[in-house]
């Protein structure tokens, strides 16, 4: 007697994917209770992550793949770049970071404006052009935002807009804006555009601007103040990044109007730097001497520039409505918006009134000292002057009496 047995079973009727799904999955009721949170995580490494065309232990510039075919009016040639001996180590670090749940640790000096985001970070110098490298240059990212626009064929399309600024820290600076569907391409194109639009800015002692100035672009107004060494950068974070790239270390900047439009803010600040005038240009323009009164030198007058023609205008030649105040002249007649400061709470107390009465007679001591030194050449009060005059008159009378007796 022959018995027929079916060879089909649960394992043969279902695919391996379905079997593993039944083994590893969680029911809907269990999922609502918070079970199975790490079930669907991938257990493999993406070996393509971190690998870019033309980048490796030996780096190459491939026109049409990782570089444009034409830059300006020149055709880009295939060339070999500098070798990277630590390429394999960096790739292994990137793959190991995929297994970690926490974010990658970034050193505080390498971070941008906020955490590990790209804004405010250094991204290196622009790519070399015709074999000429940008030695000593570095670039910072100021803006990276998505842009959506409609097309009749493709509908809603997304691109990334990137604004970068590059410089050598010694007066050379340039900015560039680029858009692309790929983030890396947009960053690279923006960095290279910034390197092709460089211009020089004059600085005083390589640490601050030549003078205070006012500048405007669109709805953004910028008031910049010149500061002594050691003051630091007191400005908007976008302007601070431009100063780091440019080499400015001491400045105070106030922004009025639109502060979120970083492109207008960058243009306004760079436009003000370009339109700066040195003291000699001001003296030739006004045909007057430029004199500085510095508080750190007790307001001692210092002549900074004279007209090149050596002919200063007289009081009769100067018009009644002509601006002679330096601050109003360099700010183009504009004045910063003044904020009303409320008096402190302790000014209402009686003790504050008594303190001001005691301090009142000492308020002008420093000014009196300066005036006495300027007038008499030494610290003399009117009492000592009268005493000297009395002694001199006594001596004169004694001299005359002695001559009369003879």
Automatic annotation (TrEMBL):
<feature type="domain" description="S5 DRBM">
    <location>
        <begin position="155"/>
        <end position="201"/>
    </location>
</feature>
<protein>
    <recommendedName>
        <fullName>Small ribosomal subunit protein uS5m</fullName>
    </recommendedName>
</protein>
<dbReference type="Pfam" id="PF00333">
    <property type="entry name" value="Ribosomal_S5"/>
</dbReference>
<dbReference type="InterPro" id="IPR014721">
    <property type="entry name" value="Ribsml_uS5_D2-typ_fold_subgr"/>
</dbReference>
<dbReference type="InterPro" id="IPR020568">
    <property type="entry name" value="Ribosomal_Su5_D2-typ_SF"/>
</dbReference>
<dbReference type="GO" id="GO:0003723">
    <property type="term" value="F:RNA binding"/>
</dbReference>
<keyword id="KW-0689">Ribosomal protein</keyword>
<dbReference type="GO" id="GO:0003735">
    <property type="term" value="F:structural constituent of ribosome"/>
</dbReference>
<dbReference type="InterPro" id="IPR048584">
    <property type="entry name" value="Ribosomal_uS5m_N"/>
</dbReference>
<dbReference type="InterPro" id="IPR013810">
    <property type="entry name" value="Ribosomal_uS5_N"/>
</dbReference>
<dbReference type="GO" id="GO:0005763">
    <property type="term" value="C:mitochondrial small ribosomal subunit"/>
</dbReference>
<comment type="subunit">
    <text>Component of the mitochondrial ribosome small subunit (28S) which comprises a 12S rRNA and about 30 distinct proteins.</text>
</comment>
<dbReference type="InterPro" id="IPR000851">
    <property type="entry name" value="Ribosomal_uS5"/>
</dbReference>
<comment type="similarity">
    <text>Belongs to the universal ribosomal protein uS5 family.</text>
</comment>
<keyword id="KW-0496">Mitochondrion</keyword>
<dbReference type="GO" id="GO:0005743">
    <property type="term" value="C:mitochondrial inner membrane"/>
</dbReference>
<dbReference type="InterPro" id="IPR018192">
    <property type="entry name" value="Ribosomal_uS5_N_CS"/>
</dbReference>
<keyword id="KW-0687">Ribonucleoprotein</keyword>
<dbReference type="Pfam" id="PF21251">
    <property type="entry name" value="Ribosomal_uS5m_N"/>
</dbReference>
<dbReference type="InterPro" id="IPR005324">
    <property type="entry name" value="Ribosomal_uS5_C"/>
</dbReference>
<dbReference type="Pfam" id="PF03719">
    <property type="entry name" value="Ribosomal_S5_C"/>
</dbReference>
<dbReference type="GO" id="GO:0006412">
    <property type="term" value="P:translation"/>
</dbReference>
């Amino acid at each position: 007697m022959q018995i027929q047995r079916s060879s089909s079973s649960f394992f043969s009727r279902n695919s391996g994917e379905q079997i593993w799904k039944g083994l590893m999955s969680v029911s809907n009721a269990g999922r609502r209770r918070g079970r199975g949170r790490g079930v669907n995580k991938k257990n493999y490494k993406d070996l393509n992550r971190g690998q870019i065309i033309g980048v490796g232990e030996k780096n190459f510039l491939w026109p049409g793949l990782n570089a444009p075919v034409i830059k300006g009016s020149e055709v880009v040639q295939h060339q070999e770049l500098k070798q990277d001996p630590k390429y394999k180590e960096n790739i292994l670090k990137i793959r190991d970071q995929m297994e970690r749940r926490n974010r990658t640790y970034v050193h505080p000096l390498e971070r941008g404006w906020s955490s590990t985001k790209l804004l405010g970070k250094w991204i290196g110098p622009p790519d070399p052009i015709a074999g000429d490298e940008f030695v000593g240059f570095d670039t910072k990212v100021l803006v990276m935002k998505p842009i959506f626009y409609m097309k009749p064929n493709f509908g809603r399309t997304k691109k990334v807009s990137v604004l970068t600024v590059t410089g050598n820290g010694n007066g050379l600076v340039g900015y560039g804006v680029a858009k692309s569907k790929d983030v890396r391409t947009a960053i690279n194109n923006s960095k290279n555009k910034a390197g092709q639009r460089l211009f020089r800015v004059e600085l005083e002692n390589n640490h601050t601007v030549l003078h205070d100035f006012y500048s405007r672009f669109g709805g953004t107004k910028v008031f910049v103040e010149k500061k002594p060494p050691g003051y630091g950068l007191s400005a908007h974070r976008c302007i601070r990044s431009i100063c780091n790239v440019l080499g400015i270390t001491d400045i105070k900047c106030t922004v009025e109007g639109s502060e979120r439009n970083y492109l207008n803010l960058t243009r306004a600040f760079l436009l003000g730097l370009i339109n700066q005038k040195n003291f000699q240009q001001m003296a030739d323009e006004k045909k007057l001497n430029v004199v500085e009164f510095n508080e750190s030198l007790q307001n001692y007058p210092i002549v900074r520039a004279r007209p090149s023609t050596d002919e200063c205008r007289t009081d009769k030649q100067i018009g009644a409505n002509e601006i002679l105040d330096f601050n109003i002249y360099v700010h183009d007649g504009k004045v910063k918006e003044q904020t009303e400061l409320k008096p402190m709470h302790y000014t209402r107390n009686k003790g504050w009134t008594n303190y001001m009465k005691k301090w009142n007679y000492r308020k002008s001591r420093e000014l009196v000292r300066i005036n006495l030194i300027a007038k008499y050449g030494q610290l003399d009060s009117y009492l000592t002057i009268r005493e000297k005059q009395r002694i001199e008159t006594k001596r004169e009378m004694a001299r005359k009496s002695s001559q009369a007796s003879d």
